[in-house]
Design a protein that fits this description.
With about 525 residues, this protein is mostly beta strands. The strands form five sheets. It has a 22-stranded parallel beta sheet that branches. About 45% of the residues are buried. Residues about 1-15, about 380-425, about 430-445 and about 450-455 have low confidence and may be disordered.
Length: about 525
């Protein structure tokens, strides 16, 4: 049989049921849906292999049984529906499953999805070429917990598809939270071409809401500058997600966006030229952002940030060992998030502008440890931009823990509250302050720094500054740990001391005059 200029064999080399034996033409003109469906029906009771040989088959086919293997070298100009039988419960280890699809090409024609999925488990999709699909692999809306699970999607090529992997969401009505579970999306190549007639706009490579268990590893994701692209990876309402070792390029918004989820690892990815954020995290509990390379072009002047975390008061994780080169705004920004260890990062600014690190508010960013980072080519003015801004040239961190106190920056302090004391022997209550500068206008003796209500976990910085005269501070109460052997610490005019208040402890961090 002749197809174009290529001879199409009647039988394929692979062992199995050849769709041509059931009347499929593969000429790109005939509707082959019924013929291929007949071939599938022939193995519905026992399972088996369906072979789609060279040719172009206009067909939309539906698989409803277990133990089916689709293979071949032909092109399916249509969709494959994996529509299993709904089970009476949501046990993800029972129901319809064990399907493999490999080798074929699926052409979506800019109007169809590639593979539609519901009520299936144990599916392998490998070495498939998806072209011009609305959604290459689409998990449909089903209001049950994990109606699909244990999918391995590996070694595929996705070209000019609007979405790659798409997990659609509707809230389960059975008390669960996640509609799809345990998906391994690895070693796939995804690209969008520019200036190619008929090329599709590409919006997201991965868009998933309501997924429990996702491994996204070793993929390469390109955008084609179509004007419609958004992000490489978007996940929401998730649990147990690993994004590792991917190459993520040219996102118009953020390379990775993760919202409202638990237990997230983003590690060892190469991220280049994202227009807004390299990594954007919001409302995440349990996060690790480690070993990523995030880069922009020097002089590009894009208003971008390397790693951004917001609204995560129980982040309980690390931002560590990342290389962040030429971000337009901040290397790392933390907003309304706590319990974060920022350590071992290396960042370089675009021609000496902006700040390497911004932690927006000490009142809403508690227990943020900043240690052993290397920030290069940032201006000295970044030191005083706000309370948590850091001058990378100097050693501005309290590294490690001292007497149970979390590591915090100790320089670059702006006052949020000013208080002047002129009465000798006054007691200074710092129990309710989050940040303060005490400015003394004349010689004063402060007999006590009181510690009432200091059980809060929020660390507080107090800077005491003497403009004129000599200031004396008592060090006789046990929880005031000031340097020196006398009962008072005296500092002369134009001198200062920085104290850290944490729990019931008041600990001296630094002073600019000798003991």
């Amino acid at each position: 049989m002749q197809f174009g200029t290529k001879e199409v064999p009647l039988m394929a080399d692979a062992t199995g049921v050849n769709v041509r034996l059931y009347g499929a033409k593969g000429d790109g003109l005939t509707d082959d849906t019924q013929a291929i469906q007949k071939a599938l029906n022939s193995i519905s009771q026992t399972g088996g292999t369906i072979v789609i040989p060279d040719g172009v088959y206009n067909a939309n086919i539906t698989i409803t049984t277990s133990n089916v293997y689709i293979t071949g070298t032909g092109t399916l100009n249509g969709s494959i529906n994996l529509y299993g039988t709904p089970t009476g419960n949501t046990d993800r280890f029972s129901g319809t499953g064990n399907v493999k699809i490999d080798g074929i090409t699926i052409q979506g024609g800019k109007t169809r999805n590639g593979i539609n999925c519901r009520w299936y488990y144990g599916v392998l999709i490998t070495e498939v070429r998806f072209m011009n699909c609305l959604k290459a692999i689409y998990f449909e809306k089903v209001n049950k917990t994990q109606h699909c699970s244990r999918y391995t999607i590996t070694g595929n090529q996705l070209i000019d598809c609007n979405y790659g992997l798409y997990v659609d969401y509707i809230a389960p009505d059975d008390g669960g939270s996640h509609v799809v579970g345990d998906v391994n999306f690895s070693n796939n190549m995804y690209e969008s071409r520019t200036n190619v007639p008929g090329a599709f706009s590409n919006i997201y490579h991965i868009w998933a809401k309501g997924i429990d268990g996702l491994i996204c590893k070793g993929n390469t994701f390109f955008f084609g500058h179509t004007g419609a692209e958004k992000s490489n990876i978007y996940i929401e309402d998730f649990n147990w997600v690993v994004i590792e070792g991917n190459h993520l390029f040219e996102a118009a918004e953020s390379a990775v966006i993760a919202k409202e989820g638990f237990n997230l690892i983003i590690a060892n990815n190469n991220v280049a030229w994202a227009k807004k954020y390299g990594i954007f995290l919001s409302t995440v509990v349990g996060g690790i952002v480690n070993g990523n390379n995030l880069t922009w072009k020097s002089g590009e002047d894009i208003q971008s940030t390397g790693v951004y975390i917001e609204n995560s008061p129980y982040f309980i994780g690390n931002v560590s060992n990342n290389n962040i080169f030429f971000p337009g705004v901040y290397a790392i920004q933390i907003k309304d998030s706590s319990m974060i260890n920022i350590t071992g990062n290396n960042a370089r600014s675009q021609y000496g502008k902006n700040q390497p690190l911004k932690i927006d508010s000490p009142a809403t960013c508690a227990s943020v440890s900043v240690t052993s980072n290397q920030f290069t080519n940032y201006p000295a003015s970044s030191l005083n931009a706000d309370y948590y801004s850091v001058n990378p040239v100097s050693t501005n961190y309290l590294s490690g823990n001292t007497e149970g106190v979390p590591a915090v920056p100790i320089k670059g302090v702006l006052s949020e509250e000013y208080m002047a004391f002129t009465n000798n022997g006054a007691a200074v209550d710092i129990s309710n302050l989050t940040l303060a500068v005490f400015a003394y206008t004349r010689s004063t003796i402060v007999t006590q720094l009181t510690k009432e209500n200091l059980s809060k976990s929020l660390p507080r910085i107090v800077v005491i500054y003497s403009y004129t005269g000599n200031l004396k501070i008592s060090r006789q109460i046990l929880n005031v740990k000031l340097k020196g052997s006398g009962s008072y610490v005296t500092f002369p005019a134009d001198s200062s001391m920085t104290l850290l208040v944490y729990g019931s402890q008041i600990i001296e961090l630094s002073r600019n005059f000798p003991v």
